[in-house]
């Protein structure tokens, strides 16, 4: 559905819902008729949401399909709860809070919707796209709700709970139901700051639905604690609005994945994500400190809940620490990969010119003997011209492998460009000529590739510096080795020339 068409549908639903609410709370109808319209409106909205979520899920794949299927289950639970509640209240005359299966249906609605939010956050882009991220989001929600629970328990809920029966269905209907919606709302807010995929229109209406249902739920709890056997229609507005908001969520266009936040907004969102679990805990802690300082004594239940919140904070910090360590390790690996890419030839995998010069400069500072070999692959142009560049690339890879086998692991083999290679032997244990001839011998055997066999030779120029010899620069040594290599080519290729020997005779 396009955004323009969705806006029209939203306006129509809001107008229709406003008319129904006004009719129900106006008092012009008798209570049974108002109750029938109220429940019919909720059932219609929940059923329509379930059908639309199902139709939308069938047309999608992956994460977009999975989170909608969770919402289908959530809406089905709401339909079952509403049917059971209506049957018990209207036809069976069950008194509040309720002993039918309605509490189970109602309590599963936010729980299943919570799974939809976690699936959507895990499948989209975010700061922690893994299984631990979903657990951190849930922990954040529980920390916020637990802190608020301690605060409201000390100030209000304890007296409320003592006023009504403590049966399981009653507790689920009166307290756990709105508290579960509150958890859903908090998790939605927390996850939207760290996951762009949650920051979209359907989730906005889910959040509004959770807000409306939770608000009416707490009003309902307050009325039950005062002995009410029926809820006034005005206090039922949040229950009436909730299914309609779920319906709008089911048809809303998913535009959150295309959102582009500025850097400042992202930083603000990250800061809020960090602070959200701790701000309500701080407020609750200050409230309890002030209360105990003025003579208020905490009962064991309040202490246990407070300790539970502290344990949640510790668990949250532990998972955050684990993720930070993981991210740091990923950053280290990424830096090493980038460094490897910056200092190595992508075709052959050996060092490139930049790394070769860096290691040559470092070796020159040590004042130890060193040898630089400048190698040009003879006949490589013919391979490229006759067999193609792919065959030429394979030959270069074979040359690089053979050069690496000719030297020690601590020596450096580099591709200096095209068909030119360099070797740095730091602290050479044998005369320079021996190293060059070892390379020629390794190059002399045929190079077997997918295109056939190629006989490749090399012209090698060598420059060296003896131990504690005169200071020389990297450019000086490379230039000398390059000049010796060209001398080898002029002498007939496939030769080794040490700078300062044969070259002097030719000059």
Automatic annotation (TrEMBL):
Keyword Transport carried by entry: no
InterPro entries: DGC-Regulatory_Protein (IPR052163), GGDEF_dom (IPR000160), Nucleotide_cyclase (IPR029787), Rev_trsase/Diguanyl_cyclase (IPR043128)
SMART domains with a match to the protein in the record: GGDEF
Domain GGDEF: 368-501
Keywords for the protein's UniProt record, in alphabetical order: Membrane, Transmembrane, Transmembrane helix
Keyword Transmembrane helix included in the entry's annotation: yes
TM region(s), chain numbering: 40-57, 69-88, 100-123, 135-156, 168-191, 203-224, 230-251, 272-291, 303-322
A Pfam match: GGDEF
Family matches, as PANTHER family: DIGUANYLATE CYCLASE DGCT-RELATED, GGDEF DOMAIN-CONTAINING PROTEIN
NCBIfam families linked: GGDEF
Protein name, as recorded: Diguanylate cyclase (GGDEF)-like protein
């Amino acid at each position: 559905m396009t955004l323009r068409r969705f806006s029209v549908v939203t306006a129509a639903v809001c107008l229709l819902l406003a008319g129904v609410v006004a009719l129900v709370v106006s008092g012009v109808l008798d209570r049974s008729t108002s109750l029938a319209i109220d429940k019919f409106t909720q059932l219609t909205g929940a059923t329509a949401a379930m059908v639309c979520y199902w139709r939308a899920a069938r047309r999608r794949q992956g994460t977009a399909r999975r989170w909608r299927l969770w919402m289908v289950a959530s809406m089905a639970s709401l339909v079952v709860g509403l049917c059971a509640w209506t049957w018990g209240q209207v036809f069976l005359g069950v008194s509040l809070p309720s002993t039918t299966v309605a509490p189970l249906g109602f309590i599963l609605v936010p729980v299943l919707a919570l799974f939809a939010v976690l699936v959507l956050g895990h499948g989209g882009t975010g700061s922690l796209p893994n299984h631990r991220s979903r657990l951190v989001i849930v922990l954040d929600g529980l920390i916020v709700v637990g802190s608020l629970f301690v605060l409201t328990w000390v100030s209000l809920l304890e007296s409320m709970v003592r006023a009504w029966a403590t049966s399981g269905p009653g507790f689920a209907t009166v307290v756990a139901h709105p508290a579960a919606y509150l958890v859903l709302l908090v998790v939605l807010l927390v996850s939207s700051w760290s996951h762009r995929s949650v920051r979209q229109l359907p989730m906005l209406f889910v959040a509004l639905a959770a807000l409306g249902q939770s608000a009416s739920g707490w009003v309902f709890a307050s009325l039950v604690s005062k002995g009410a056997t029926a809820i006034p229609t005005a206090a039922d507005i949040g229950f009436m609005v909730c299914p309609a908001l779920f319906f709008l969520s089911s048809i809303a266009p998913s535009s959150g994945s295309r959102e582009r936040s500025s850097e400042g907004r992202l930083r603000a969102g990250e800061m809020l994500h960090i602070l959200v679990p701790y701000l309500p805990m701080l407020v609750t802690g200050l409230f309890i400190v002030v209360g105990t300082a003025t003579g208020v004594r905490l009962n064991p239940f309040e202490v246990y809940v407070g300790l539970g919140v502290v344990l949640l904070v510790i668990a949250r910090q532990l998972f955050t620490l684990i993720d930070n360590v993981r991210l740091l390790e990923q950053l280290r690996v990424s830096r090493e990969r980038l460094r490897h890419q910056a200092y190595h030839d992508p075709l052959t995998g050996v060092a490139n010119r930049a790394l070769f010069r860096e290691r040559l400069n470092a070796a020159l500072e040590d004042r130890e003997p060193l040898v630089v070999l400048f190698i040009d692959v003879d006949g490589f142009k013919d391979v490229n011209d006759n067999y193609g560049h792919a065959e030429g690339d394979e030959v270069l890879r074979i040359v690089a492998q053979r050069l690496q086998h000719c030297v020690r692991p601590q020596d450096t083999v580099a591709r200096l460009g095209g068909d030119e290679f360099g070797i740095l032997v730091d602290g050479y244990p044998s005369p320079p000529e021996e190293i060059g001839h070892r390379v020629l011998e390794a190059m002399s055997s045929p190079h077997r590739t997918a295109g056939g066999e190629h006989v490749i030779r090399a012209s090698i120029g060598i420059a060296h510096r003896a131990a504690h010899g005169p200071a020389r620069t990297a450019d000086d040594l490379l230039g000398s080795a390059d000049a010796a290599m060209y001398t080898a080519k002029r002498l007939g290729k496939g030769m080794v020339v040490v700078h300062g020997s044969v070259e002097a005779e030719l000059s």
